[in-house]
Amino acid sequence: MKKVVVYPVILHPEDVGYTVEIPDIQGGWTQGESMSDALTMAQDLIGLALEDDTEYPKATPLEDVQIGDKDIKTIVNVDMDEYHRQNPKTVRKNVSVPEYLVKLGKEKEINFSAVLTEALKAKLEV
Description:
This protein is an alpha+beta fold. The chain has two domains: 4-86, Double Stranded RNA Binding Domain (2-Layer Sandwich), CATH 3.30.160; 90-126, no CATH class. Helices cover 36% and strands 21% of the residues. It is built from four helices and four strands. It has helices at 35-50, 80-86, 99-107, 112-124, and strands at 4-13, 18-21, 29-32, 72-79. Strands 3-2-1-4 form a four-stranded antiparallel beta sheet. A hairpin with a 4-residue loop joins strand 1 and strand 2. 14% of the residues are buried.
């Protein structure tokens, strides 16, 4: 089951671009040079703000979001699983491998982390 979050955002037009407010995300402000850029930045901010969470803040209904005369309200969605795939955190893991492979790998200047990552992606078909 996908973990997709949907939140309202408010675009505040500026002389150049937009300031973006995300009312349901603490510290939820960003900006963009165009409307498309501003909405992309909003998605990135939501993903970043919620990347370590398993429970997400409840979204305010769009009709309940109050805006100024020139402001624009809309919604953005973020597939949190896809966000994690596109913005992976690295985690240190201790692994055991035969000593002779370590020696050969060092001689050939193999990046063990890269090889393990590639092998896991292949094995997991991701």
